[in-house]
Amino acid sequence: MAMTLIQTAKLNGVDPQAWLTDVLERIVSGRTKVTELDTLLPWNWKPNNSAAVPAVAA
């Protein structure tokens, strides 16, 4: 199941790690209501500024 989610994200041009992190955070925190879950699908997902993956310090 996990690989299906990752591949679906990749096929939709979405970074799987950023997408899964953001989606799980939104669901657990309650920021996304049950009626809005379709907005979290990879083809509808829009990252928040907080969802950006931080750059690694050199």
What would your notes on this structure say?
The longest helix is centred in the middle third of the chain and has 14 residues. It contains 2 helices and no strands. Helix 1 packs across helix 2. The C terminus is likely disordered. The protein has one domain. With 58 residues, it is an all-alpha fold.
Radius of gyration: 12 Å
Strand content: under 5%
Helical proportion, percent range? 40-55%
Cα shape: globular
Tally of separate domains: 1
* Order of helix and strand elements from N to C terminus: HH
Biggest beta-sheet profile: none
Structural class: mainly alpha
Mean pLDDT: 85
- Report the span from N to C terminus: 35 Å
Low-pLDDT sequence parts: 51-58
Number of strands: 0
Helical stretch count?
A: 2
Please give the structural blueprint.
Blueprint: H1 2-11, H2 16-29
Question: Could you list some keywords that capture this structure?
Answer:
2 helices, 58 residues, disordered C terminus, mainly alpha, globular, IS66 C-terminal element
In short:
This protein has 58 residues and is mainly alpha-helical.
